[in-house]
Design goal:
This protein has 203 residues and is an alpha/beta fold. Strand 4, helix 4 and strand 5 form a beta-alpha-beta unit. The longest helix is centred in the first third of the chain and has 13 residues. The structure holds adenosine-5'-triphosphate. Adenosine-5'-triphosphate (ATP) binds next to helix 1, strand 4 and helix 6.
Length: 203
C-alpha cells in the first residue's frame, strides 16, 4: 500500500527546519511522497497576517526542485478552521488505497490530546514526529502513547535546527538576513511580493 506523509503547518514562512524534516521523514520512513499542507486558518494559534495564498506559494517554490516533496491545497480550499481530522477524513475518502502519515514537530506532541478528535486522527493516519530543539520528544511520545495506545507513532531523528518561522518573521521585519535558513527562491518571492514589511514602517 502506498504511504504518503502529510506535513501540516502555517509555513509563515517555510524554512530549512521544515524542509529538512520533510526530506528526513521521506527517507527514514520510506514514504512515496511528503506533501506540505499549509493551513488556511490554524485552529491552535493566532491567525497569520500573511495571506494563505502567499504562504502556499512560498511552499510551492521551496519544494519545486525537490523530487518526493509536494504541496496540497486541501486545507486552503476548505472554509473555516483547518482541523486535521477533517483533512484526513476527506483524503481517506478520496484515496482509500493510500495509507497516510501525519507529520509533526516534537513540539506538537504535548498538545496533541487537545486537538479536535485526536482518537479519530490516529485511527485515520500514522503519526510521525521529528525532533526539535527545546522540546523533549520522549515526553511527547509518552503523552501520546499513554492516551492513544493504539496509535502508530514513530520519531524521526534529524539535525536539531533551532529555527522557527516567528523568529524569521522578526528578522525579516527588521530587515535582517534570513540567508540559508529560508530557500533562495522563497527569499526572492518574499522580496518580490513585499511580504513581512511592517505596515507603516519607514525603511
Ligand atoms: P512559528 O514560529 O510561527 O510558531 P514554526 O516554525 O513552528 O512557526 P509551523 O509552520 O508552525 O512553523 O510548523 C509546521 C510544522 O513544522 C510543525 O509540526 C512544527 O512542529 C514543525 N517544525 C517547525 N520548525 C521546526 C524545526 N526547526 N525542526 C523540526 N520541526 C519543526
Amino acid at each position: 500500500m502506498k504511504r504518503i506523509g502529510l506535513f501540516g503547518g502555517t509555513f509563515d514562512p517555510v524554512h530549512i527546519g521544515h524542509i529538512v524534516a520533510a526530506e528526513y521523514v521521506l527517507d527514514a520512513c520510506g514514504l512515496e511522497r511528503v506533501l506540505f499542507v499549509p493551513t488556511r486558518i490554524p485552529p491552535h494559534k493566532e491567525a497569520p497576517d500573511t495571506p494563505a495564498e502567499d504562504r502556499f506559494h512560498m511552499v510551492e517554490v521551496a519544494v519545486a526542485d525537490r523530487p518526493g516533496l509536494g504541496v496540497s491545497r486541501v486545507e486552503l480550499d476548505r472554509e473555516g478552521p483547518s482541523y486535521t481530522v477533517d483533512t484526513l477524513r476527506y483524503l481517506r475518502t478520496r484515496h482509500p488505497d493510500v495509507r497516510f502519515a501525519w507529520i509533526v514537530g516534537a513540539d506538537q506532541l504535548l498538545g496533541f490530546p487537545m486537538w479536535k478528535s485526536p482518537e479519530e486522527i490516529v485511527s485515520l493516519a500514522d503519526l510521525i514526529a521529528v525532533v526539535r530543539p527545546g522540546y523533549n520528544e520522549h515526553k511527547g511520545m509518552d503523552v501520546v502513547r499513554k492516551q492513544f495506545p493504539r496509535a502508530a507513532l514513530e520519531v524521526v531523528e534529524m539535525p536539531r535546527l533551532e529555527v522557527s518561522s516567528s523568529e524569521l518573521r522578526a528578522r525579516l521585519e527588521a530587515g535582517r538576513t534570513v540567508s540559508v535558513l529560508v530557500p533562495q527562491a522563497v527569499q526572492e518571492l518574499i522580496r518580490a511580493k513585499g511580504l513581512y514589511k511592517r505596515a507603516g514602517r519607514v525603511r
